[in-house]
Every structure is written in C-alpha cells, then in structure tokens.
Write a structure and sequence with these properties.
The protein has 457 residues and is of the alpha/beta class. The chain contains 15 helices and 18 strands. The longest helix is centred in the middle third of the chain and has 37 residues.
C-alpha cells in the first residue's frame, strides 16, 4: 500500500464523517434550544459562527446568505464537552522511571487510536491527554481535539499540565513515595540554584571585561575594600538568590523547562490523590513548592472524606468516572454508598466529571455521567458546568471553551433532546467552526444500531 493510500485509510478510520478540518468562513445553526451554560438559555434561536468563532446568539438573527446552515429545529445546542483528563490515546500511560517531568505525551499520543473516534461520537470535543497516575512526577499532557492525522493538527494547547502523584505506586509505601516526591523537588531546586549562580557570575565577569576602570578608580576601589570589611561580610550573608527570578527559558536544558514552568506557576498541575489521607500530603507539597493556585486534584472515591480540607485550600477536583464510594459499615455490616458530586456540590467545591471508554457503559459518556449526577441530587445547571465550563477552566481554557459566548471558540454540539434525558443522542459536532461529525453519516454507529440502509448487516 502506498504512503498516500495508507494516510487516506487512516483518516477514514479516525473520522466517522470524513472531510477536511478546514472550517467554513460562516456557519449557522438554526431553530434550536441554545444552552449557553454561562448565561441565558434561548428557545428557537440561532447561533452564527464565522472563522471558527461565535459571532452571535439569539432569536430572529438573520442568517448570512453565504453561510453553511445546520437546521437544528426541535433540537438542543450546547457547548462541546470537555474531558478534564485521561491517559487514553497513549501507547502506555506511564514510564517505568518514576520521576520524568521532562517527557511529554507528544511522543506517545496516537491520533488514529479508536478512543478519539469514540470521543468525537460522544461529543467530547476538548480533551486533556496526560500521563497516568502510576508515577511520582509523570510528565506533561496536551489538550487536543479528537480529530486530525497528526498530534500537531489536533493540539489545542501544548502545555496542558503536569501530572504529579501524591499516592504511592504499586509496591511502594506511602512514606517512601512522598519522600521521593519531596526529594525530586529539592534536587531540582538545587540544580536551579547552581544554574542561577553560574549565570550571575558570568554576567559579572562580562561586565568587568566590558568596562575596565582607570588606574585611579582601581586604587579608590582598593581603599574602599580595605576600609569596609563589614560590608563584605554583609554581602556574603545576603539573602540567597531566587533562581526563579534569575533564570529564563533560554538558560535551561530541555529536561528542566517543564518543571521550571510548574514552579513559576505558569503550568497547571494535576495532582493525583487516591485516598483521603493523600490529600493532606498533596496540599502541603503544592503549598511548599508554590504551585497551589494552579493545582487541580484528581481524586479517588474515598477523597470525599477530605472535602473540608480541599475546600479550605481553595482547590477544584476531577472526579473518577465511577463517582460512587462504597464501603461496609463496621458496625452494621451493611454497604454504604456516597455520591461524590452531591458531596462536593453541597460544599460549593468546583468539580469536573470524567469518563472512560474502559469502564461500564454509563461511565463512557460525559452526558451520561451528568445525568447520573442529577439523579443523585445535583442541580442540572451544576452538572452541566461539570462537563463543560468547570473542566475548561481547570485546563486554563475558560476564556475560549466551555460555554457559548460571543468571541469564544465555535465548538458546540447539536443534541436530539435535553442533555440529561434518556435517549438523547449527539447529532452533530462542530469544533472551531468545522462540522466534523454527523450522526446521520456515522456508518459504524448506524450498523451497530441497525439504522443503516442495509439494516445493519
């Protein structure tokens, strides 16, 4: 098979609706109920997109004569869903080496993985692909859209975030794991201090070489040095150099740059906590290293017990796809169930729901996860934000994704009915103004459901 033919074949596998990613200059979705998430909900309204951005939302908007039109009469339009974090789509979730802040999913992400086709079909339009939890410092993730033949063409944001784990890896005690995590930061800061001192020493040498002094000035300097030994001692005892203020990107090696961005507060951190007892370690490490304000906790079901500590630290959380914690009451012997979305919603802690293609059917779709949260007692508006705007903010994309607002990215879904109603399907997916998926043209889905022209045979 020729290289060109192979590429075309791969494209047909990736996209349920084949076609170029290039967005039309103008696109109009008409006659729909429009849920903006961040504001008003419109009945029988239009959404106008131009050059990949939302230009207008409202009733009785005039549709440009040269716009491509999607008739969504009787249907619902909402923002594209945001998958807050996953390690699917990678050839493997983690490396064998536990401390690898310098690696990136760029080298492991597979654009033709079936996960991305399924994500497009489910309406998961913005996805953070990041290393898994079996690590100490696992490396950086990338925010992608589920369409494209190369990682570069899929990329929404390069510096998606650093995965760090406060929970022990398999075969390692909690004490040893946390000690290794602290040691990694101590050693890295030592590296930065050495680099900063070398830079400052080099700068002083260059300055002296560029501006030699006259003989009289040198004599004056010598006398000054002799008369002020106390000044020299004071200088030696001066506050240590802050390498984060001295060093720049160009001063660092490729293996140092990502963690440097973390310590400077310029890269999001996704901190894994499997157990409630791990939350305190996570908060302490994030505080001591100065990146608490950019931290989101990725938690296991038991961590609802540390909700008060999470709230006091001002953190947001990403819930597991199965967000029900089950445990046996030691007194009665009966199993107790706790719904995490209900707990965190009641305490006013921002949270994102998550989904996985490896779990049960209900765990594979963010819409179904939202419906389950509503069934557990969460307000529908809160559940909607947990699959759109809240995860977008966690990824640093709140200004461009997660809600339908003028000027934001034209990334949206057309649904067959209300988002959390049983039987609702994702009918159309538009990403950055490009109409990338249509259920009516999804041959694989039609064959699965028996709706295709040949009866699914």
């Amino acid at each position: 098979m020729s290289k060109k033919l192979l590429t075309f074949s791969l494209l047909s596998l990736v996209a349920p609706q084949a076609g170029a990613f290039q967005a039309p200059e103008k696109l109009a979705i008409t006659g729909a109920k429009v849920i903006t998430v961040s504001g008003e909900t419109y009945e029988k309204a239009n959404v106008l997109l131009e050059n990949g951005r939302i230009q207008a939302i409202g009733k009785d908007l005039e549709v440009p004569w040269d716009a491509k039109v999607i008739d969504a009469s009787g249907k619902v339009v909402m923002p594209g869903l945001v998958l807050a974090q996953t390690n699917e789509g990678l050839d493997r979730p983690n490396e064998n080496v536990p401390v690898t802040p310098f690696i990136s999913v760029l080298d492991a992400l597979n654009p033709v993985d079936a996960f991305f086709e399924d994500s497009l079909r489910e309406g998961h339009a913005t996805i953070l692909v990041i290393p898994g939890n079996e690590t100490v410092i696992g490396g950086t993730g990338r925010v992608v859209k589920p369409f494209g033949l190369t990682v570069e063409s899929m990329t929404v944001r390069v510096d998606g975030g650093m995965k760090i784990s406060a929970s022990p890896r398999r075969g390692v005690s909690a004490m040893a794991h946390v000690a290794e995590l602290r040691k990694a930061f101590v050693e890295f800061r030592d590296e930065l201090e050495v680099a900063a001192e070398k830079k400052l020493a080099g700068a002083k040498s260059e300055k002296k070489a560029e501006a030699p002094k006259a003989a009289g000035e040198k004599a004056d300097d010598k006398k000054a040095d002799e008369k002020k030994p106390a000044d020299k001692k004071a200088e030696e005892k001066a506050a240590p150099v802050d390498p984060l203020k001295v060093l720049e990107w160009k001063d660092l090696s490729a293996r140092q740059r990502a963690l440097f961005e973390v310590l400077n507060g310029r890269m999001p951190v996704f901190l894994w906590c499997e157990r409630a007892m791990d939350v305190a370690h996570a908060i302490e490490i994030a505080k001591s290293q100065g990146f608490l304000s950019r931290t989101t906790l990725v938690i296991g079901t038991e961590c609802w017990k540390a909700a008060d500590e999470i709230k006091a630290a001002g953190l947001s959380v990403i819930l597991p796809s199965d967000f029900v914690h089950r445990e046996v009451d030691p007194l009665t012997g009966k199993e107790r169930e706790t719904s995490l979305p209900k707990v965190f919603a009641s305490k006013g802690i921002p949270f994102a729901l998550n989904a996985t293609s490896r779990g049960a059917l209900l765990e594979r779709s963010l819409l179904l996860r939202g419906a389950s949260a509503v069934a557990a007692g969460v307000e529908p508006a809160t559940a909607l934000r947990a699959i759109t705007l809240e995860p977008a903010r966690m990824l640093g994309l709140g200004d461009s994704h997660g809600s339908l607002e003028v000027g934001k990215a034209g990334t949206l879904l057309v649904l067959s009915g209300d988002p959390f109603r049983t039987g609702t399907w994702v009918e159309e997916v538009v990403i950055d103004g490009a109409h990338l998926y249509s259920r009516a043209k999804d041959d694989r889905l039609q064959r699965l459901t028996g709706d295709s022209k040949d009866g699914g045979r």
